[in-house]
Amino acid sequence: MKTVHADKEKLFIGGEWKEANQYSDLKSPYQDRVIAQIPIAEKEDVVKAIDSAEQAKKEMRKLTALERSEILERVVEIFKERFEECALILTKENAKPLKAARAEITRTIETYKFAAEEAKRIHGETIPMDAAKNGAGKFAFTKREPLGVIAAITPFNFPFNLVAHKLGPAIATGNTVILKPASQTPLSAFMTAEIFEKAGLPKGALNVVTGQGSKIGDILVTDSRIKMVTFTGSVDVGLGIRNKAGLKKVTLELGSNSAVIVDSANNLDHVVGRCVEGSFAFAGQVCISIQRIYVQEDLFDEFVQRFVEKTKQLTVGDPAEEDTDLSVLIHQREAERVENWIEAARKSGSNVIYGGKREGALLQPTVITNVDSNQEVSCQEAFAPIVSINPYKTFDEAINLVNNSSYGLQAGIFTTDVQKAFHTIDSLEVGGVIVNDIPSFRVDHMPYGGVKNSGTGREGIKYSMEEMTELKLAVFNI
Fold first, then answer.
1. Predicted TM-score (pTM) of this structure
2. By C-alpha distance, which of 414, 136, 467, 133 is closest to 269?
3. Is the confidence at residue 6, as pLDDT, over 60?
4. Hey, which residues does 253 pair with through a beta bridge?
């Protein structure tokens, strides 16, 4: 058993913790100091990880549904025991405010719990063969079988829970996994591997390799023994995976510039509060963070005034402090990128009515009005604490403004008109419509995924399990 907080981390391959030939320094985004040395996997390491996963797939396939469920239940219990330790890892490696870090660990526990429960509910169906003329005297049924080896490539923003969304369903369905975490957040992946090791997962069923995604990723995507790649990250990398994967299954969750329509409300303060939360939680580094708000013109001035007032109440600073709401971005270069976007919007005539200031990697929560839809702060994914608020006249105009995007993950609508709510559901080009709440809403058993450049496939434990299995048909001549 290894210690996650050791200065020098190790690769996890074949159930063993292995030294690497090279290491890189991992720095805390907030304090900008070295917190660990991270192993850089070479091609040989990745091939060994695939070898181990390939060898372990037979043992994983033999596990009963109950045995897989029990392993996941033990994972749940160990996460509960190490709850605060896991939360502190998040504040260190990606500057997630402590209260948000605790919320992520709570969700991670819930996600593995869902996986433990769904492991017992994998089933097929009987087929009425005699519905066809030549089907009389035949009996048929389907069953779901594991794919084999799955490559999971995960992002920095929810390094425990988004890993759980890949490992949970993969283990529940009897697959083996090679996990490639984001370079900035490997400590959470190592902790997760240690927890699965302690929970009794067969050796080789989970492997963790860290290093340059451009090198590791290509090996995982092109190796014929990998039967599926599940990836959360940028559009460019996702398209590259899709082009190289061949006939592998591929699930891509690629982000968005999520929008919300504010049509009418019985309690505008509640709507404003939810929108502020959805815009600035974890400094906007959430795939479904609110980036665009379209407000009915009669409500616009009051909404903006209350929105800014609520934004001013946010506490910005050290993620380790109990009352911090948002902290630094993951890298200073990301803050600089968005700062340039803000300046470009300002020069084009947009009004930066609050925030817009940067100090190192810290970008103040920023509110912009009168934003042209072609501006980067509107049409690209900001992944930062920035939101644009524009008025609209007609409801169809609002629908068109939301759909005027190359992305389509989730969108929200606040309205007291049930007909408009259903019209919105039918009209918006997104994977999920959230009525009378923000598009940033997600619980971990619902289907989650998008259209357009937001990706392909669905996460959410039950839905991921369908992606991670093959459907087999059996026909009896009786």
1. 0.96
2. 414
3. no
4. 232, 455
